[in-house]
Amino acid sequence: MSRSQQLDRPGPPAGPPGDDSGCTILHVDMDAFYASVELISRPELHGTPVIVGGGNRGVVLSATYEARRFGVHSAMPMSRARRLCPQATVVAPTHGRYSQVSAGVMEIFRSITPLVEPLSLDEAFLDVAGAVRRLGRPAEIGTLIRDRVADEQGITCSVGVATTKFVAKLASTRCKPDGMLIVPAAGVVAFLHPLPVAALWGVGEKTEKELVRLGLHSVGDIANTPRSTLVRAVGQATGSHLHALAWGRDERSVVPHEPDKSIGAEETFASDVDDPQVVRRELLRLCERTAARMRTHGLAGRTVSIKVRFADFTTITRARTLKEATDVAQEIYATARGLYDALGLDRARIRLVGVRVEGLADSGTTPRQLLLGERSRGRREVEQAADRAVARFGRGTVGPASLVTSDPAAPPDPSRPPDPSG
DNA sequence: TCTGGGGTCCTCTCCCTA
DNA sequence: TCTGTAGGGAGAGGACCC
User: Is A123 annotated as catalytic?
Assistant: First the structure.
């Protein structure tokens, strides 16, 4: 018996038997991905409500369909989810495991076609035009993928098959869970027009409100509205974009590797913080984490930005562009700390801080001007050595002293006079 | 009713330069 | 030399996606 049979899958649902000619774009989306991965190691929870999430101020990362029946959905505050479904088993996320399963799934995709564009851990676009002669029609390839994911990874996925990315993505959403939906080229408009405006890629809460205010409720309404009217309502880019999508026009191709444009990290405090020393220490930790990830990816960046969210949820960002790209945590921290100090916050209650580095380029091809008197083996080499130690002995084995002692004092900042507390 | 974390993209504004 | 203007880059904030 195959794993797909063991999973007790209901079989292909409801898609119109349709003509899949030219429908070479597949969107594959794992069903309740994090929750499904947790069920692999806890099969006794199959068929019960399970919520993946955690922290006293966290949100739901994923929930089984049994939990969703109670109104639980991802991004919902955990406190609310617990109230809606008190009988649910709450599981803390295990991100390493999700990455493992995701890598296995992407490997399956790449054995079908090299044209795989991952969107996140749990979904990807595939262009299977080049695989049709070898593996059969797009619908057959979709079935093959669903079976292999179930057999080899023990989870289910849904597949949308269409002529464009946008329609394929909508199709996979409409056939969840564990389904496949083919939208033939001739049926695109009939498929799209009855859908609500929020189905369109790029329409969130605010834009939906604005469109409904104009009396536009369905995708068909958008399609039959002059583009100039849409542009006036929601802006040039969004207006043109929505009008094109509403007629099924989407020129984007499947791009296997898009380089990262920014890398960052942010953290919500367990409770609001008004001590600048605590905030600075958190900034340092985030800079360390960001820089380590940049070095792992071989990237360096020029623009450092910080984000501060206050207790009332208002959020501000500040950014500064450096003369040269860097992947050194201490340089990123010096800039981030400068930006934070320049805010001049006086015991403001802070909920979250974040650090992000933009303007990324390959660190191997990014020239570094050695300053007069600067030692050739400096902070960068120290941090690279720390990377090697962490890779060998695990996270937390090496790091700045200020992060491993109870002293909240900030570390030495090259742009400032010596800090008496540090 | 309480809102994570990691991202991308767009719009607006300001400043500098030609 | 002064003024107006257009364009580009940077910065800030917002909306959106998963």
Answer: yes
- How many CB atoms neighbour CB A237 within 10 A? 10
Entry pTM: 0.86
| C-beta separation of A223 from A243 below 8 A | yes
Q: Which letter does DSSP use for residue A121 in this model?
A: T
Give pLDDT tens digits along chain A (422 positions).
Answer: 454 444 555 444 444 446 888 899 999 999 999 999 999 999 999 999 999 987 778 889 999 999 999 999 888 888 889 999 999 999 999 988 999 999 999 999 999 999 999 888 999 999 999 999 999 999 999 999 999 999 999 999 999 999 999 999 999 999 989 999 999 999 999 999 999 998 898 888 888 888 888 888 999 999 999 888 888 888 878 888 889 899 999 888 898 877 788 899 988 888 889 999 999 999 999 999 999 989 988 888 888 989 988 888 888 888 888 888 888 999 999 989 988 988 888 788 898 898 999 888 888 766 555 444 455 456 777 777 766 766 666 666 666 666 654 433 333 333 333 333 32
The protein side of the strand B contact, defined by CB less than 7 Å from any of its atoms, consists of: A 55-59, 61, 74-75, 77, 79-80, 235-238, 260-268, 289, 293, 313, 351-352, 354, 356, 358
3-state secondary structure A257-285: CCCCCEEEEEEEEEEEECCHHHHHHHHHH
Query: Per the residue annotation, which of A66, A123, A282, A383 is the catalytic one?
Result: A123
Q: Hey, CA dihedral for A88, A91, A92, A96, is it positive or negative?
A: negative
d(CA A94, CA A37): 9
Nearest nucleotide, CA A306 to C1': C12
Phi-psi region at A62: left, alpha or beta (left = phi > 0; alpha = psi -120 to 50): beta
How many helices, marked H, and strands, marked E, lie in chain A? 17, 12
What gap in Å lies between CA A252 and CA A51, rounded to an integer?
35
Using the structure, give the distance in angstroms from the CA atom of A118 to the C1' atom of C8, rounded to a whole number.
33
